[in-house]
Amino acid sequence: MGQIRxxxxxxxxxxxxxxxxxxxxPRQDEAEGLGKLPIRIGSVEAAAISMxxxxxxxxxxxxxxxxxxxxxxxxxxxxxxxxxxxxxxxTFFAQLQLTTxxxxxxxxxxxxxxxxxxAVRMHAPIFADEHVLSTAxxxxxxxxxxxxxxxxxxAFHDFVEGLTPEDFAQ
Length: 170
Known about the structure:
By secondary structure, the protein is an alpha+beta fold.
């Protein structure tokens, strides 16, 4: 199956009974009509992703994801991409695609939250397998609403085009 490029739409840093989430959405040029992918994560991981996106929120000391970035760079490798590879029940799985200085591709299993936190720090693209999207994505309500508005506009247009002067006679 193919992979769809994703962007982070939102991050919810929950606490107590409120769950933390990262919501990924397909790039508009990638997949029209595909839904958003909500992934439940820990509040610490949500904060780590948020700090990676906005470094002004970061602590003065490096976090684990900063350490991982440093290790990867020190070894001369790059994070080529992050892929949300599968979902089982409510548990998502991800992989990091690393490219070594010698050009070798390495795959490392990861939790999606850690993969996304690392991706934002290393400016690596995030992808989701099409099967994951077809299994776990929320419907694209914006697309459904847009289609309904277009259908209603077309019906109204047909109605107006079918009017005759006799329709206005009293």
